[in-house]
Amino acid sequence: MNSIRSMAACVVALALMMPPAAAQERIVIDAGAAGKPFPHFWEHMFGSGRAVLSLRDSYRQDLRAVHTVTGFSYVRFHAILHDEVGL
């Protein structure tokens, strides 16, 4: 009998810990509505490797050459706060 009460208490405790059910959300799509432009941010970005590459002069020269040809606005790096960068 004690084990049944313990199990029941566990079930109640688990039920109380569960988040409440999310409210239903209704999404309506008007296919006849006027369209809006979608900004292509990736067309203004140059994808690079690791951030430590930017410490090399030859890389920066290459980056300038690519910028001259493409006119990119942003550079995306990986590991920008990595220890190898020295920050």
What's the SSE blueprint?
Blueprint: H1 2-17, E1 45-50, H2 57-70, E2 74-78
Parallel strand pairs: 1-2
Protein model, in words:
- This protein is of the alpha+beta class and 87 residues long.
- It has a domain at 39-87.
- It is 34% helix and 13% strand.
- The protein contains two helices and two strands.
- The chain has helices at 2-17, 57-70; strands spanning 45-50, 74-78.
- It has a two-stranded parallel sheet with strand order 1-2.
Write a concise synopsis of the structure shown.
This protein is α+β, with helices and mostly antiparallel strands. It contains two helices and two strands, in the order H-E-H-E.
List key phrases describing it.
flat, single chain, 87 residues, alpha+beta
